[in-house]
Design brief:
302 residues; alpha/beta; single chain
Length: 302
């Protein structure tokens, strides 16, 4: 008998375990303050095989494989590369994500977009091609890209995703520099009101700006939130407690909250245990958060 539907709506994987370890070790989200305890990384390596192994161990049915284009870091690491070379590298990586998910029915491909890209026609054509290759959505990271989601320079990205009916997962919160607010929930309101059919997931429940998520949910029915990372920091100075999370989910509407892990930064089984420990949720609400909400909101084909 098949187990319950569990969908990790926010996962990553890298070419090698060393690549993953370098990124995991180099990232500490300062926006929440010090965590209340030690956050143990998952036992599995942050590769495709490691993700699939973690899914099997945790009983996760499917995972959305997000490709995040770290354009700001790419430009720092390769200052002599041209914009054409950056674009070619991103395009190749996006095709690889699509090919990987095509070969693994448990995985769902979301491709990356360079938020500093300025050619609307070219972007639309590329996303249309990637959709034909199996891309089911787009991931953007406004904090690392250092450009706000409501900046007029990225309006064509939102338009292309709306035109192609590609849902967007966008990093929510600050990241690294606590003064940077490019992905806070309030910035999404105008964008989503201008594109009422565009489904967008604000990741991490808005990060350290989590208190403003209910206002966005009230004004924009086309938004949902995932709870990866923030649930690991529950009880940190700038993060909600588990009790706060329960109240926050009730305020937003539990049907608009998605389970996600941010693997390989955090473990699948551990994150599931944390979801199950959030107070104030009915059993059917927990079950929906773990899988059915993502299936419905993102319109995931079986």
């Amino acid at each position: 008998m098949a187990g319950p539907l569990v969908i990790d709506s926010h996962a990553h994987a890298f070419d090698t375990a060393d690549d993953a370890r370098t990124l995991v070790d180099g990232y500490a989200p300062a926006e929440y303050g010090a965590p209340p305890g030690v956050i143990d990384p998952p036992a599995q390596p942050g590769t495709i095989d490691g993700l699939l192994d973690a899914m099997g161990s945790a009983g996760v049915s499917r995972a959305i494989l997000l490709h995040t284009w770290l354009g700001g870091l790419e430009r720092m690491a390769h200052p002599d590369a041209s914009e054409e070379q950056h674009a070619a590298k991103l395009a190749a990586q996006n095709r690889q994500v699509c090919a990987t998910a095509s070969a693994r029915p448990e995985l769902i491909a979301f491709v990356g977009v360079d938020m500093h890209r300025t050619d609307p026609v070219g972007l639309h054509g590329e996303l249309e091609e990637l959709k034909g290759l199996g891309a089911c959505g787009v991931k953007i990271h406004p904090s690392i890209e250092r450009i706000a989601v409501d900046d007029p320079r990225v309006a064509h990205i939102w338009q292309a995703c709306a035109d192609l009916d590609l849902p967007v997962v966008a990093h929510g919160g600050r990241t690294h520099d606590s003064r940077v607010h490019h992905g806070e929930p309030r910035r999404f309101a105008g964008v989503l009101q201008n594109h009422p059919t565009l489904r967008t997931v604000v990741a991490h429940l808005g990060g350290a700006e989590w208190r403003t998520a209910p206002e966005l949910a009230e004004t924009c029915p086309n938004v949902a939130f995932d709870l990866c990372e923030i649930i690991q920091y529950a009880g940190a100075p700038n993060a909600p407690t588990l009790a706060d999370l329960g109240r926050l989910i009730a305020s937003i509407g539990s049907h608009r909250v998605l389970f996600g892990t941010d693997f390989p930064w955090y473990g699948l089984d551990d994150t599931i245990e944390r979801v199950m420990s959030i107070p104030g949720l009915a059993d059917e609400e927990r079950a929906a958060i773990l899988g059915r909400n993502a299936e419905a909101f993102l319109r995931l084909a079986a």
